[in-house]
Write a structure and sequence with these properties.
- By secondary structure, this protein is mainly alpha-helical.
- The protein contains 16 helices and no strands.
- The longest helix has about 35 residues.
- It is found in: Membrane.
Length: about 400
Protein backbone atom coordinates (compact mmCIF):
# COMPACT_ATOMS: atom_id res chain seq x y z
CA UNK A 1 0.00 0.00 0.00
CA UNK A 2 2.82 2.34 0.90
CA UNK A 3 4.53 1.57 -2.42
CA UNK A 4 1.33 2.39 -4.33
CA UNK A 5 0.99 5.70 -2.48
CA UNK A 6 4.62 6.51 -3.20
CA UNK A 7 4.17 5.75 -6.90
CA UNK A 8 1.06 7.95 -7.04
CA UNK A 9 2.94 10.71 -5.25
CA UNK A 10 5.80 10.48 -7.77
CA UNK A 11 3.32 10.57 -10.66
CA UNK A 12 1.65 13.67 -9.22
CA UNK A 13 5.03 15.34 -8.79
CA UNK A 14 6.09 14.66 -12.38
CA UNK A 15 2.72 15.76 -13.78
CA UNK A 16 2.92 18.98 -11.79
CA UNK A 17 6.50 19.52 -12.97
CA UNK A 18 5.42 19.01 -16.58
CA UNK A 19 2.59 21.52 -16.20
CA UNK A 20 4.85 24.16 -14.68
CA UNK A 21 7.67 23.65 -17.18
CA UNK A 22 5.24 23.93 -20.07
CA UNK A 23 3.66 27.21 -18.93
CA UNK A 24 7.00 28.61 -17.78
CA UNK A 25 8.53 27.86 -21.19
CA UNK A 26 5.64 29.65 -22.86
CA UNK A 27 6.21 32.77 -20.73
CA UNK A 28 10.01 32.77 -21.14
CA UNK A 29 9.83 32.37 -24.93
CA UNK A 30 6.87 34.72 -25.42
CA UNK A 31 8.81 37.96 -25.93
CA UNK A 32 11.78 36.48 -27.80
CA UNK A 33 12.14 37.00 -31.53
CA UNK A 34 13.45 34.47 -34.05
CA UNK A 35 12.42 31.45 -31.96
CA UNK A 36 9.06 30.84 -33.65
CA UNK A 37 9.78 27.12 -34.09
CA UNK A 38 10.30 26.64 -30.36
CA UNK A 39 7.27 28.76 -29.50
CA UNK A 40 5.09 26.67 -31.80
CA UNK A 41 6.41 23.44 -30.26
CA UNK A 42 5.54 24.66 -26.76
CA UNK A 43 2.07 25.82 -27.83
CA UNK A 44 1.35 22.48 -29.56
CA UNK A 45 2.38 20.62 -26.39
CA UNK A 46 0.08 22.93 -24.41
CA UNK A 47 -2.81 22.08 -26.77
CA UNK A 48 -2.18 18.34 -26.41
CA UNK A 49 -1.82 18.53 -22.62
CA UNK A 50 -4.99 20.60 -22.22
CA UNK A 51 -7.03 18.23 -24.41
CA UNK A 52 -5.66 15.21 -22.48
CA UNK A 53 -6.64 16.77 -19.13
CA UNK A 54 -10.11 17.65 -20.39
CA UNK A 55 -10.70 14.04 -21.43
CA UNK A 56 -8.89 12.12 -18.69
CA UNK A 57 -9.49 14.28 -15.62
CA UNK A 58 -12.91 15.51 -16.72
CA UNK A 59 -12.08 19.05 -15.72
CA UNK A 60 -15.30 20.93 -15.21
CA UNK A 61 -15.10 23.42 -18.04
CA UNK A 62 -18.06 25.21 -16.44
CA UNK A 63 -15.77 26.24 -13.56
CA UNK A 64 -13.54 28.03 -16.05
CA UNK A 65 -16.26 29.79 -18.04
CA UNK A 66 -18.72 30.79 -15.30
CA UNK A 67 -16.73 33.78 -13.96
CA UNK A 68 -16.96 37.42 -15.01
CA UNK A 69 -13.45 37.39 -16.50
CA UNK A 70 -14.44 34.78 -19.06
CA UNK A 71 -17.73 36.55 -19.76
CA UNK A 72 -15.94 39.85 -20.42
CA UNK A 73 -13.48 38.10 -22.74
CA UNK A 74 -16.38 36.43 -24.53
CA UNK A 75 -18.18 39.75 -25.03
CA UNK A 76 -15.03 41.32 -26.46
CA UNK A 77 -14.65 38.37 -28.85
CA UNK A 78 -18.29 38.78 -29.93
CA UNK A 79 -17.61 42.45 -30.72
CA UNK A 80 -14.71 41.43 -32.97
CA UNK A 81 -16.91 38.83 -34.71
CA UNK A 82 -19.36 41.66 -35.32
CA UNK A 83 -16.53 43.76 -36.80
CA UNK A 84 -15.89 40.97 -39.33
CA UNK A 85 -19.50 41.13 -40.50
CA UNK A 86 -19.29 44.89 -41.24
CA UNK A 87 -15.68 44.90 -42.47
CA UNK A 88 -14.77 46.48 -45.79
CA UNK A 89 -12.51 43.42 -46.23
CA UNK A 90 -14.27 40.50 -44.45
CA UNK A 91 -11.79 37.80 -45.53
CA UNK A 92 -8.84 39.76 -44.15
CA UNK A 93 -10.68 40.57 -40.90
CA UNK A 94 -11.64 36.91 -40.49
CA UNK A 95 -8.01 35.87 -40.96
CA UNK A 96 -6.85 38.42 -38.36
CA UNK A 97 -9.56 37.22 -35.98
CA UNK A 98 -8.29 33.64 -36.09
CA UNK A 99 -4.62 34.73 -35.97
CA UNK A 100 -4.99 37.06 -32.97
CA UNK A 101 -8.30 36.83 -31.13
CA UNK A 102 -8.98 33.10 -31.40
CA UNK A 103 -5.54 31.44 -31.35
CA UNK A 104 -3.56 34.04 -29.40
CA UNK A 105 -6.16 35.24 -26.87
CA UNK A 106 -9.15 32.92 -26.48
CA UNK A 107 -7.31 29.61 -26.73
CA UNK A 108 -4.34 30.63 -24.54
CA UNK A 109 -6.64 32.25 -21.94
CA UNK A 110 -8.40 28.88 -21.50
CA UNK A 111 -5.41 26.58 -21.94
CA UNK A 112 -3.48 28.13 -19.03
CA UNK A 113 -6.29 27.47 -16.47
CA UNK A 114 -6.90 23.95 -17.83
CA UNK A 115 -3.22 22.95 -17.51
CA UNK A 116 -2.85 24.54 -14.07
CA UNK A 117 -6.26 23.41 -12.80
CA UNK A 118 -4.84 20.91 -10.29
CA UNK A 119 -2.05 23.16 -8.99
CA UNK A 120 -2.20 25.09 -5.72
CA UNK A 121 -2.79 28.81 -6.11
CA UNK A 122 0.48 29.62 -4.31
CA UNK A 123 2.38 27.51 -6.85
CA UNK A 124 0.53 29.21 -9.71
CA UNK A 125 1.46 32.65 -8.39
CA UNK A 126 5.12 31.66 -7.99
CA UNK A 127 5.13 30.20 -11.50
CA UNK A 128 3.94 33.48 -13.04
CA UNK A 129 6.28 35.73 -11.05
CA UNK A 130 9.46 33.67 -11.33
CA UNK A 131 8.94 32.80 -15.00
CA UNK A 132 8.86 36.51 -15.80
CA UNK A 133 11.98 37.05 -13.69
CA UNK A 134 13.83 34.26 -15.51
CA UNK A 135 12.75 35.72 -18.87
CA UNK A 136 14.92 38.77 -18.11
CA UNK A 137 18.03 36.68 -18.91
CA UNK A 138 17.29 35.68 -22.55
CA UNK A 139 15.74 39.08 -23.30
CA UNK A 140 18.81 40.88 -21.95
CA UNK A 141 21.20 38.57 -23.83
CA UNK A 142 19.44 39.15 -27.16
CA UNK A 143 19.23 42.90 -26.57
CA UNK A 144 22.90 43.29 -25.70
CA UNK A 145 23.88 41.04 -28.61
CA UNK A 146 21.99 43.43 -30.86
CA UNK A 147 23.93 46.36 -29.33
CA UNK A 148 27.21 44.56 -30.05
CA UNK A 149 26.26 43.95 -33.70
CA UNK A 150 25.20 47.59 -34.07
CA UNK A 151 28.42 48.82 -32.48
CA UNK A 152 30.44 46.75 -34.98
CA UNK A 153 28.84 48.66 -37.85
CA UNK A 154 29.27 52.06 -36.18
CA UNK A 155 25.87 52.46 -34.50
CA UNK A 156 26.24 53.63 -30.89
CA UNK A 157 23.72 52.94 -28.11
CA UNK A 158 20.87 55.47 -27.67
CA UNK A 159 21.23 56.83 -31.20
CA UNK A 160 18.41 54.99 -33.00
CA UNK A 161 15.04 53.36 -32.39
CA UNK A 162 15.86 49.74 -33.27
CA UNK A 163 15.24 48.50 -29.72
CA UNK A 164 11.71 49.83 -29.30
CA UNK A 165 10.21 46.39 -30.05
CA UNK A 166 11.41 45.29 -26.58
CA UNK A 167 8.87 47.65 -24.97
CA UNK A 168 6.18 45.04 -24.26
CA UNK A 169 8.69 42.66 -22.70
CA UNK A 170 10.13 45.36 -20.44
CA UNK A 171 6.69 46.48 -19.27
CA UNK A 172 5.99 42.87 -18.24
CA UNK A 173 9.32 42.11 -16.54
CA UNK A 174 10.21 45.43 -14.87
CA UNK A 175 7.54 45.14 -12.10
CA UNK A 176 8.90 41.71 -11.10
CA UNK A 177 12.02 43.41 -9.78
CA UNK A 178 9.81 45.31 -7.33
CA UNK A 179 8.63 41.96 -5.95
CA UNK A 180 12.22 40.78 -5.44
CA UNK A 181 13.19 44.05 -3.75
CA UNK A 182 10.94 43.23 -0.75
CA UNK A 183 13.03 40.13 0.00
CA UNK A 184 14.94 41.11 3.12
CA UNK A 185 18.33 39.66 2.33
CA UNK A 186 21.44 41.55 1.23
CA UNK A 187 22.21 38.97 -1.47
CA UNK A 188 18.76 39.36 -3.08
CA UNK A 189 18.97 43.16 -2.95
CA UNK A 190 22.37 43.09 -4.68
CA UNK A 191 20.94 40.80 -7.38
CA UNK A 192 17.93 43.11 -7.79
CA UNK A 193 20.21 46.15 -8.05
CA UNK A 194 22.32 44.51 -10.77
CA UNK A 195 19.24 43.32 -12.67
CA UNK A 196 17.74 46.79 -12.33
CA UNK A 197 20.83 48.31 -13.94
CA UNK A 198 20.51 45.90 -16.87
CA UNK A 199 16.76 46.40 -17.26
CA UNK A 200 17.13 50.17 -16.79
CA UNK A 201 19.67 50.30 -19.62
CA UNK A 202 17.29 48.34 -21.83
CA UNK A 203 14.38 50.62 -20.92
CA UNK A 204 16.34 53.74 -21.86
CA UNK A 205 17.46 52.00 -25.05
CA UNK A 206 13.88 51.71 -26.33
CA UNK A 207 13.90 55.51 -26.79
CA UNK A 208 10.13 55.42 -26.27
CA UNK A 209 8.60 57.93 -23.87
CA UNK A 210 5.42 55.86 -23.74
CA UNK A 211 7.42 52.86 -22.56
CA UNK A 212 9.24 54.91 -19.93
CA UNK A 213 5.95 56.25 -18.61
CA UNK A 214 4.40 52.76 -18.70
CA UNK A 215 7.06 51.58 -16.25
CA UNK A 216 7.34 54.73 -14.11
CA UNK A 217 3.61 54.98 -13.33
CA UNK A 218 3.18 51.33 -12.15
CA UNK A 219 6.37 51.71 -10.11
CA UNK A 220 4.94 54.83 -8.46
CA UNK A 221 1.70 52.94 -7.70
CA UNK A 222 3.74 50.10 -6.16
CA UNK A 223 5.70 52.58 -4.03
CA UNK A 224 2.47 54.08 -2.67
CA UNK A 225 0.91 50.69 -1.91
CA UNK A 226 4.07 49.29 -0.32
CA UNK A 227 5.21 52.57 1.27
CA UNK A 228 8.64 51.88 -0.19
CA UNK A 229 10.85 54.75 -1.36
CA UNK A 230 14.39 53.38 -1.11
CA UNK A 231 14.37 51.66 -4.53
CA UNK A 232 13.03 54.64 -6.54
CA UNK A 233 15.41 56.97 -4.71
CA UNK A 234 18.37 54.76 -5.61
CA UNK A 235 17.08 54.50 -9.21
CA UNK A 236 16.82 58.29 -9.53
CA UNK A 237 20.34 58.78 -8.15
CA UNK A 238 21.85 56.14 -10.48
CA UNK A 239 19.96 57.48 -13.50
CA UNK A 240 21.02 61.06 -12.70
CA UNK A 241 24.66 60.01 -12.39
CA UNK A 242 24.51 58.11 -15.69
CA UNK A 243 22.91 61.00 -17.58
CA UNK A 244 25.30 63.54 -16.03
CA UNK A 245 28.37 61.51 -16.98
CA UNK A 246 26.96 60.86 -20.47
CA UNK A 247 26.30 64.58 -20.96
CA UNK A 248 29.78 65.61 -19.84
CA UNK A 249 31.75 62.84 -21.57
CA UNK A 250 30.03 62.61 -24.94
CA UNK A 251 27.05 64.88 -25.33
CA UNK A 252 26.89 64.43 -29.11
CA UNK A 253 26.48 60.67 -28.92
CA UNK A 254 23.51 61.00 -26.56
CA UNK A 255 21.77 63.81 -28.43
CA UNK A 256 18.82 61.60 -29.42
CA UNK A 257 18.35 60.33 -25.87
CA UNK A 258 18.48 63.83 -24.36
CA UNK A 259 16.06 65.06 -27.00
CA UNK A 260 13.56 62.34 -26.06
CA UNK A 261 14.00 63.12 -22.36
CA UNK A 262 13.34 66.83 -22.93
CA UNK A 263 10.69 66.52 -25.65
CA UNK A 264 7.34 68.04 -24.72
CA UNK A 265 5.60 67.79 -28.11
CA UNK A 266 3.09 65.08 -28.96
CA UNK A 267 5.15 63.70 -31.88
CA UNK A 268 2.26 64.51 -34.26
CA UNK A 269 -0.30 62.43 -32.38
CA UNK A 270 -3.11 64.92 -31.99
CA UNK A 271 -4.85 67.48 -34.26
CA UNK A 272 -4.04 66.11 -37.72
CA UNK A 273 -1.57 63.52 -36.40
CA UNK A 274 -1.97 59.78 -35.88
CA UNK A 275 -4.66 59.91 -33.20
CA UNK A 276 -6.33 63.04 -34.52
CA UNK A 277 -6.75 61.56 -37.99
CA UNK A 278 -8.03 58.27 -36.50
CA UNK A 279 -10.61 60.25 -34.53
CA UNK A 280 -11.70 62.06 -37.70
CA UNK A 281 -12.43 58.72 -39.36
CA UNK A 282 -14.14 57.29 -36.27
CA UNK A 283 -16.48 60.26 -35.95
CA UNK A 284 -17.62 59.68 -39.52
CA UNK A 285 -18.81 56.23 -38.47
CA UNK A 286 -18.77 56.09 -34.63
CA UNK A 287 -21.46 53.45 -34.08
CA UNK A 288 -20.78 50.89 -36.80
CA UNK A 289 -16.98 50.79 -37.23
CA UNK A 290 -15.02 49.71 -40.29
CA UNK A 291 -13.72 46.20 -39.61
CA UNK A 292 -10.98 44.42 -37.68
CA UNK A 293 -7.28 44.47 -38.67
CA UNK A 294 -4.50 46.97 -39.29
CA UNK A 295 -4.83 46.80 -43.07
CA UNK A 296 -8.45 47.90 -42.86
CA UNK A 297 -7.35 51.09 -41.09
CA UNK A 298 -4.54 51.68 -43.60
CA UNK A 299 -6.90 51.23 -46.56
CA UNK A 300 -9.58 53.59 -45.21
CA UNK A 301 -6.97 56.18 -44.19
CA UNK A 302 -5.15 56.13 -47.53
CA UNK A 303 -8.45 56.30 -49.45
CA UNK A 304 -9.67 59.31 -47.47
CA UNK A 305 -6.44 61.29 -47.20
CA UNK A 306 -7.39 63.48 -50.19
CA UNK A 307 -10.34 64.80 -48.15
CA UNK A 308 -8.15 65.81 -45.19
CA UNK A 309 -5.28 68.09 -46.27
CA UNK A 310 -4.59 68.92 -42.61
CA UNK A 311 -3.44 65.37 -41.83
CA UNK A 312 0.28 65.31 -41.06
CA UNK A 313 1.08 61.85 -42.47
CA UNK A 314 0.27 61.38 -46.14
CA UNK A 315 0.29 57.61 -45.70
CA UNK A 316 -1.19 55.65 -42.80
CA UNK A 317 1.09 54.61 -39.93
CA UNK A 318 -1.77 53.51 -37.67
CA UNK A 319 -3.82 55.23 -34.94
CA UNK A 320 -1.15 54.80 -32.22
CA UNK A 321 -3.82 54.28 -29.57
CA UNK A 322 -5.34 50.93 -28.62
CA UNK A 323 -8.74 52.40 -27.69
CA UNK A 324 -9.05 54.26 -30.99
CA UNK A 325 -7.93 51.13 -32.84
CA UNK A 326 -10.73 49.03 -31.28
CA UNK A 327 -13.31 51.79 -31.71
CA UNK A 328 -12.38 52.13 -35.38
CA UNK A 329 -12.56 48.37 -35.88
CA UNK A 330 -15.71 47.37 -34.02
CA UNK A 331 -17.54 50.63 -33.44
CA UNK A 332 -19.26 51.50 -30.17
CA UNK A 333 -19.86 47.82 -29.32
CA UNK A 334 -16.11 47.09 -29.54
CA UNK A 335 -15.21 50.18 -27.51
CA UNK A 336 -17.60 49.24 -24.68
CA UNK A 337 -16.64 45.54 -24.75
CA UNK A 338 -12.91 46.29 -24.69
CA UNK A 339 -13.09 48.65 -21.73
CA UNK A 340 -15.54 46.38 -19.91
CA UNK A 341 -12.95 43.58 -20.20
CA UNK A 342 -10.16 45.82 -18.88
CA UNK A 343 -12.27 47.14 -15.99
CA UNK A 344 -13.37 43.63 -14.96
CA UNK A 345 -9.73 42.47 -15.04
CA UNK A 346 -8.60 45.48 -12.99
CA UNK A 347 -11.42 44.94 -10.49
CA UNK A 348 -10.47 41.28 -10.00
CA UNK A 349 -6.82 42.22 -9.51
CA UNK A 350 -7.71 44.80 -6.85
CA UNK A 351 -10.03 42.38 -5.05
CA UNK A 352 -7.44 39.62 -5.20
CA UNK A 353 -4.72 41.91 -3.84
CA UNK A 354 -6.92 43.20 -1.02
CA UNK A 355 -8.66 39.99 0.03
CA UNK A 356 -6.36 37.01 -0.59
CA UNK A 357 -4.78 35.56 2.53
CA UNK A 358 -1.65 34.27 0.77
CA UNK A 359 1.19 36.87 0.48
CA UNK A 360 2.57 35.39 -2.75
CA UNK A 361 -0.88 35.33 -4.38
CA UNK A 362 -1.45 38.95 -3.34
CA UNK A 363 1.83 39.85 -5.02
CA UNK A 364 0.79 37.99 -8.18
CA UNK A 365 -2.50 39.89 -8.37
CA UNK A 366 -0.63 43.15 -7.88
CA UNK A 367 1.88 42.24 -10.58
CA UNK A 368 -0.91 41.47 -13.07
CA UNK A 369 -2.52 44.81 -12.20
CA UNK A 370 0.71 46.79 -12.67
CA UNK A 371 1.41 45.11 -16.02
CA UNK A 372 -2.16 45.75 -17.19
CA UNK A 373 -1.98 49.42 -16.25
CA UNK A 374 1.44 49.84 -17.83
CA UNK A 375 0.76 48.02 -21.10
CA UNK A 376 -2.90 48.73 -21.87
CA UNK A 377 -3.77 51.91 -19.95
CA UNK A 378 -0.54 53.94 -20.18
CA UNK A 379 1.24 52.61 -23.28
CA UNK A 380 -2.10 51.96 -24.93
CA UNK A 381 -2.67 55.72 -24.89
CA UNK A 382 0.41 56.21 -27.11
CA UNK A 383 0.67 52.99 -29.15
CA UNK A 384 -1.55 50.32 -30.69
CA UNK A 385 -0.54 47.69 -28.15
CA UNK A 386 -0.59 44.07 -29.33
CA UNK A 387 -3.89 42.57 -28.16
CA UNK A 388 -2.40 39.09 -27.72
CA UNK A 389 -0.47 40.25 -24.64
CA UNK A 390 -3.65 40.13 -22.58
CA UNK A 391 -3.98 36.33 -22.90
CA UNK A 392 -1.23 35.63 -20.37
CA UNK A 393 -2.75 38.06 -17.85
CA UNK A 394 -6.27 36.75 -18.44
CA UNK A 395 -5.25 33.09 -18.21
CA UNK A 396 -3.52 33.47 -14.84
CA UNK A 397 -6.30 35.73 -13.53
CA UNK A 398 -8.94 33.12 -14.41
CA UNK A 399 -7.12 30.26 -12.68
CA UNK A 400 -6.38 32.34 -9.57
CA UNK A 401 -10.02 33.39 -9.39
CA UNK A 402 -11.13 29.74 -9.71
CA UNK A 403 -8.81 28.78 -6.86
CA UNK A 404 -10.23 31.55 -4.66
CA UNK A 405 -13.74 30.28 -5.22
Amino acid sequence: MTLVKKMKSNDSYHISLWNKCLISSYIILYFLNNVTRYKNCVVILMYITAIYYLIKNKIKIFDIVKNNLTISLGLFSVSIVYSISISIDPSYSLKKFFDVIFSKILVISFIIPIILYSEKKEEIAKLFIYSLIISIIPIAITDFWQYIKEYNVGIMPFTDYEHKYKSDALIFIAPTLLFLWKKNTIKIKIIVFLLSLIVGFMILGTMQRGTWLSIIVPTFIWCILKKEWKLPTIAIIVLSLFLSIAYVKNHEQFNTLFYKLQQTSSSHRYAGGTQGSAMDLILENPIKGYGFGDNVFHKVYNDRIKDYPQWVFRESIGPHNITLSIWFSAGLLGLVAFWYMLIILIRNCICGFKNDSSPIVKECWLLILLILIGDYIIRGAFETVYLGNIAMLMGFSIILKIKDE
